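This protein record is not my work; I was only asked to verify it. The record follows directly below this note.
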Amino acid sequence: MEHSSLEQNQTDGLQIGRSVYNMNFRRLTSAGCSVALRFQLDHVLRVLVQNEGQVVSREELIEIVWNGNYCTGPKALTHSICKLRKIFAILGDDDTQIVTVPKFGYSLCTTTTNEVFI
């Protein structure tokens, strides 16, 4: 059985690195600080969480989050990834990273799962 760094906390949500992700309330919390996520940020994070440690292609994210809208999707995706990185930094969670795989996609990695599988 493969060990995952994402652990379900029944009352608070999903542990991601040093942060807790509450999917029901679309919030990331760490060290007493909490950030509400807008719908598309939450949707991008959900897809990355569901594929933790694996690369998710830009096309797949655009298809899932923006319903394949390639006019809006590419810029919105880049902006969303940037915002999520800033949120993890604001929360002081340097254990969690969103890794860019050039010309392909993104991967959610934590210090315990720093390998990326392509």
The chain has one domain: 7-110. The chain is about 30% helix and 30% strand. The beta strands are 7-9, 13-16, 19-22, 27-30, 33-36, 56-57, 96-101, 105-110. Residues 1-5, 113-118 have pLDDT under 50 and may be disordered.
